[in-house]
Specification:
Blueprint: H1 5-11, E1 18-21, E2 25-29, E3 39-43, H2 55-76, E4 80-84, E5 100-105, H3 122-133
Antiparallel strand pairs: 1-2, 2-3, 3-5, 4-5
Length: about 130
């Protein structure tokens, strides 16, 4: 897609530091990393977000993210991994080409959860469950 930075990376017109590649996906180091080794996994074909892609493409991205997570853990000796896939502006997406963040984690790395954990009320859970079951 014209003007898409990630499509430019796939095409090779924008430089990147490749971590992984297969027929359907490409993975490269994030230039704004949350932690050392933070990698973005993208489909080679353009799709905006999870809602704009088919299940097979999303599955390929998820499978590639698993391979990348294992590679990062093996090579960087991380203690854990955080995966993020953010869709649309309200979902914190900033580059509108489907991508998954694979972030190596170490004990005490000072990264924190992006939301505060609080228990839902029984009423909220029941109301939501009813809406989803319809």
């Amino acid at each position: 897609m014209s003007g898409c930075i990630f499509c430019g990376i796939v095409e090779g017109t924008i430089p990147s530091r490749k971590v992984f590649e297969n027929e359907l996906c490409y993975a490269f180091l994030d230039i704004f990393p949350a932690n050392r080794g933070h990698t973005l996994v993208i489909p080679k074909s353009h799709s905006l977000d999870i809602h704009d892609t088919d299940s097979a493409t999303y599955g390929a991205v998820a499978a590639a993210a698993k391979e990348v997570a294992d590679l990062l853990q093996e090579k960087l000796h991380s203690d854990g991994t955080t995966l993020f896939q953010m869709s649309r502006e309200a979902g914190w997406q900033t580059v509108f080409h489907l991508h998954m963040h694979v972030i190596p984690r170490w004990n005490g790395d000072n990264l924190h959860k992006p939301w505060d954990i609080a228990a839902a009320t029984e009423e909220d859970l029941n109301t939501t469950a009813l809406l989803l079951a319809q």
